[in-house]
Amino acid sequence: MTAPHRLELRDICISLGSQVLLELDAEIGPGEVLTVMGPSGSGKSTLLAYLAGFLAPDFQARGQVLLDGQDISPLPAEKRGMGLLFQDPLLFPHLSVAGNLRFGLPRSVADKAQRVEGALAQIGLAGFADRDPATLSGGQKARVALMRLLLSAPCAVLLDEPFSKLDTNLRHEMRQLVFDLLREAGLPSLLVTHDREDAEDAGGRMIELNH
Ligand SMILES: Nc1ncnc2c1ncn2[C@@H]1O[C@H](COP(=O)(O)OP(=O)(O)OP(=O)(O)O)[C@@H](O)[C@H]1O
Fold it and tell me: Mind listing the UniProt keywords for this protein, alphabetically (predicted)?
């Protein structure tokens, strides 16, 4: 486990004009996954955009987002230490698999090649370093995206329906890998989904948003 982190969402309220879209108060400890469920339009992606620092100007938000006790809500997205994982793996098409992983590593890391090799082995993709991401299966791309995120040493992770594009057989396996690695890294994570099985496999607390 790297340094343990804690994420606190204090009295978050996001509105659209005069209408309150969502209210949330929660704490996520090191290695914990909090699942936020809700129907389409209930504000799941808006919540993640707010936490990540790119909420559309149409919305108004108040509350505090505390990372290890420090309010990060005034900080720009790149200074928040939030890692994001989306439905789409969003690998860089002009870089090899190893290039995508190296991109995640902070500049200060000296043994980059060794780290990348170890990371590939950890996700069952040893020998894939020089592959073009376009030649990977959906599950393999998802694993590379996950590892790129973890190598970037985030302080907390936001997951936006990351399993919804995978086929049913792969989904369970991918969830296990994601949640095991997040736990092992001691990262507080917030998963938004409308799939109840995602929430069950995450194994943590669950909050339901009402529309
Ligand atoms: N930029 C925007 N300006 C105005 N309204 C918006 C904007 N983005 C989203 N909305 C509205 O805010 C509400 C919440 O949208 P959001 O995308 O967060 O929902 P969601 O729960 O993630 O839905 P889904 O599960 O379908 O992705 C919706 O009613 C949507 O129409």
Answer: ATP-binding, Hydrolase, Nucleotide-binding, Transport
Given a cut of 80, whether residue 39 has pLDDT beyond it is yes
Q: Whose CA is nearest to atom 27 of ligand 1?
A: 40
Whole-number Å distance between alpha carbons of 199 and 211 = 19
- What CA dihedral angle connects 153, 156, 158 and 162, to 10 degrees? 50
Q: Give me the pLDDT at residue 1, please.
A: 47
Any domain includes 86: no
User: Is 36 touching ligand 1 by the criterion CB < 6 Å?
Assistant: no
Nearest CA to ligand 1 atom 11: 41
Are the beta carbons of 146 and 85 closer than 8 angstroms? yes
Distances (CA, A) of 170 to 2, 37, 85: 28, 21, 17
pTM value is 0.92
164 shares a domain with 148:
no
Give residue 21's domain range. 1-81+158-211
Ligand 1 atom nearest to CA at 46: 18
Which residue has the CA at smallest separation from atom 30 of ligand 1? 41
